[in-house]
Automatic annotation (TrEMBL):
Entry's transmembrane regions: 44-65, 172-199
Protein name: Major facilitator superfamily (MFS) profile domain-containing protein
Species this protein is from: Aegilops tauschii subsp. strangulata (Goatgrass)
Main location class: membrane
Keyword Membrane part of the UniProt annotation: yes
Subcellular location per the Swiss-Prot or TrEMBL entry: Membrane
Length: 204
């Protein structure tokens, strides 16, 4: 039999219920959003900036990777399609590995803030390193490997940026994600368009 709340479940001991309550936020629905307070907090703006930067790179790769494979690496359409899957497959696996590492660090006493910073640093510096190598290598195989490693390290952001909304504002996590993701979507739009413009016209 299912119960609406842990407090209603007779199978949970009093001590367990007390622990659950101490670790959860209020179950009351949010009726008023304190926009002024939220927007006055530096961590919120750091989260927004982080989401913007993350999506700038992700959407550029998502949009322009097939063109890179076809025009630069000279893969045909079938090969480009197959190799485009590899970075995202690597990302799916790496996200779970990153989550396990983050949970392990927290369980061993590392502060949540430190863990988020470590994970997001990997999520930013990893792609920056691997993508920068593309201008120095001639092997298509190495280029594909760099793309895969780039997205694999990018997936550590799932344990950094994307977990941080719940950390800094549990009751308003949805609002925080809405704010940061709005910035992220704008980054995707402008980043993709800017890349297309630069590829077509070059830098001024």
């Amino acid at each position: 039999k299912a119960y609406s709340t842990p407090l209603e479940d007779p199978g949970i001991s009093a001590e367990e219920k007390k622990l659950i309550i101490s670790e959860t936020t209020s179950g009351e629905p949010v009726t008023t959003i304190p926009w002024g307070v939220i927007l006055s907090k530096p961590p919120v703006w750091a989260l927004i900036a982080c989401h913007f930067c993350h999506n700038w790179g992700t959407f550029i790769l998502l949009t322009w990777m097939p063109t890179y494979y076809n025009q630069v690496l000279k893969f045909n359409l079938t090969e480009s399609s197959l190799f485009c899957v590899l970075p995202w497959l690597t990302m799916a696996i790496s996200a779970n590995v990153g989550g396990w590492i983050a949970d392990t660090l927290v369980s061993r006493g590392t502060s949540v803030t430190t863990v988020r910073k470590i994970m997001q640093s990997i999520g930013f510096l990893g792609p920056a390193f691997f993508l920068s190598q593309l201008s120095h290598i001639d092997s298509p195989a190495l280029a594909v490997l760099c793309m895969a490693c780039s997205q694999g390290s990018d997936a550590f952001s799932q344990s950094g940026l994307y977990s941080n909304h719940q950390d800094i504002g549990p009751r308003y996590a949805g609002v925080l994600l809405g704010l940061s993701n709005t910035a992220g979507v704008l980054a995707g739009v402008f980043g993709t368009a800017a890349t297309g413009y630069i590829l077509q016209h070059g830098l001024p």
